[in-house]
Structures are given as C-alpha cells and as structure tokens.
Specification:
binds SN-glycerol-3-phosphate, about 300 residues, flat, 2 domains, TIM Barrel, alpha/beta
Length: about 300
Amino acid sequence: MKIFIDTAELDEIREAISWGIIDGVTTNPSLIKKAVDKRNGKISMEDYIKEIVKTAPGPVSLEVIGQTSEEMIRQGRMLHEKFSSFGEVAIKIPINPSIEEDDRLDFEGLKAIRQLSMEGIQVNVTLIMTPEQALLAAKAGAAYASPFAGRIDDYIRANLGMKRGKDFQKGDYFDYDLLCRAREKKLNEAMENAKSIREIYESRDVNSLVSQGQDNGVYSGVDLIARILRIYRAYGFKTEVIAASIRNPRQVREVAELGVHIATLPFDVLRGMVKHYKTAEGMRRFMDDVVPQYRILFEE
Ligand code: G3P
C-alpha cells in the first residue's frame, strides 16, 4: 500500500518523508491557503507549491477550481504546465462540480477527467462518495479515485441524528459493526410477529430500520472503499483507489486489510499509527533493565 500525506504543510511533509514511508502528497485549496497564510506573505502561493512538488517523493495532487469542463481542463493543463517540471503532479478534479440542485454541471467533471487523461495528465478524482461515481471515474480514464471515507461516516452518523463535536469527535472511530448488529437486533424484533414474508417486506417499521445507519446500501466509509475495490477488481480497471478523508489509524488498518492501493493521511493520523501504550511501556522496561555490562557493548 502506498501512503500519501494529506497536507500542504511543508514541515509536516518533510518530517513524514524523513520517516521513509511517504509516496506522495495530496492537497486542496483549503490546505494550501492554511499553509501559505502561516508564512505571512513571505512566499507566493506559486513558489510554495513549487517547493511542495520539489520536496515530494511522488505525485502531488493539486486541485482545480472551475465548474465547467472547459475551465477545469484549462486549469488542469495550467497546473500541470506550471509545476510538472519540478516533480510529479496529479490534477484533482471533482467527480461532480455541481453545487446547486441545478444538474447542468453534473457531467462536467467526467468530461474534464476524460480529456486530461487522454492528454497523458494524471487525474485524481476527488469527492467520491458512492461506488457508482467511482465506476464512472474509472471509465473516464482517471489515474486515481479518491473516496472520502470520513465524510461518509459523518453523513451516516448525521442521518442517525448524531452531531459532530457533540456526540462524536472528528477523529473518533465509527463502529459500523456495532451499528449493524444493533440494526439486526431491532429488525428481528420488528419482524417477530409478522405473519408473512410480504408483511415483513412491506412493513413501515422494517423499512425505516433498514434505511437507518447507511447511505443507499453503503454502511461506512470503509465499506464504500470495499465496494469500489470490488468493482475495480471485477473489471480490471487500472485506476488506483486513494482512501481519503481518513480520520484515525484504525480506519487505515481497515482500508489496508482491503488491499486499497493508496491511503492519504493527515500528519496526526500518521503519528498515531506508531503509538501504543504497551510499546511505550515495553520500551521503558527495556531501558530500565540496561545494566552497565550491556551498555559497554556500545562503547567505541
Ligand atoms: O483527502 C481529503 C481530505 O482533505 C478531506 O478530509 O477529514 O476534511 O474530510 P476531511
């Protein structure tokens, strides 16, 4: 599995590269703004991005800001032209740039993905929230598809009436297994007195329970990634899946167990992956047990 770092903070990028486990960088306009703002006008955004591209050991994803395919294609070419001489660049295109209910822009992302990919520019399709969107991204020839695991977990919890910041925190693990078992239990209760299969199938209570804690048959962010991988493997798509919007180390483990191609991780999630209470405790014990004769072994 490749690991990308999801940040525009050069210090974080450099530090994580020094650990020897980074294969690429993903950014977005908000991450770049935050990082450049911290430099108090000492460096232009363009020079700052150049520095990221020079520093990264693999592709740096840079996002367009347009909403029509013409704009996105033009901006994608510009970003590629400006920065690809400094290192590897992938262009982030939203799967669907539409903001309003108005659906006229729905297919502009796909058109841009197809065109830029045909020109040999690597496209990273962002804001993927369904397996269906991921299928279209692969069909359009994307190099990478980025499903947003954490945001799907947020969405499912929000639909259950849970508020981020109150009922759960951004980095909290979403225990969808427990949720599935809770749903199962409630369903069994609701089905108990039914006289026929049809009665169960048509029961309002049953249907309301079935629809809770899921998003159109997707049960969590990790489940979203599992389903996308299954589709890509079924057809041999070359598009690599980047597990994005990852919030905690356990999610990283779960997408790794699925064999995801890449996970893009915030600095703090990466830091969390190396920690365990018993590792620190074991370390303390070893250090306490170092006797002088052992120490002498290391004297030059
Ligand atoms: O990789 C996508 C990421 O930048 C969004 O993460 O945690 O804000 O959903 P998050």
